[in-house]
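Deliverable D2.4 — example input (structure tokens):
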């Protein structure tokens, strides 16, 4: 494995084990900008990503000021969980975006993270042509 591949795999492990990326988002964007997504994703993830259509919908569930994160999901119910998981906050929002595959940095299959099998989409930029949001009561 090359040093570049090793670096990408280390960042991937950190990504999977981390939470609240939006608090240090500029650092993550800088760190991932120099990484080849093909080294970041596993072979299984690359295959699954290749099967996605060229245009598809992703969701981001957030509360408070965490809207502008890098992490989205293919599953609305996962976004709804993140939009409502902190009871001390009054309400959350599910942001629905229609994106092009070219906007995606990586697809991460977080099945080991729980029984719901989150299929995470990492987007480093915000070039989407269609943005919709609805509020989920928290």
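Example output (designed residues):
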């Amino acid at each position: 494995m090359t040093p570049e591949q090793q670096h990408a795999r280390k960042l991937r492990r950190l990504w999977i084990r981390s939470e609240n990326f939006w608090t240090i988002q500029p650092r993550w964007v800088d760190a991932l900008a120099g990484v080849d997504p093909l080294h970041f994703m596993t072979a299984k993830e690359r295959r699954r990503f290749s099967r996605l259509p060229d245009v598809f919908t992703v969701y981001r569930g957030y509360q408070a000021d965490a809207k502008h994160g890098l992490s989205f999901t293919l599953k609305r119910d996962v976004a709804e969980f993140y939009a409502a998981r902190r009871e001390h906050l009054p309400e959350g929002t599910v942001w629905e975006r229609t994106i092009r595959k070219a906007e995606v940095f990586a697809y991460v299959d977080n099945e080991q993270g729980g029984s719901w099998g989150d299929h995470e989409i990492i987007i480093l930029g915000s070039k989407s042509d269609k943005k919709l949001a609805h509020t989920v009561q928290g």
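Residues 127-138 have pLDDT under 50 and may be disordered.
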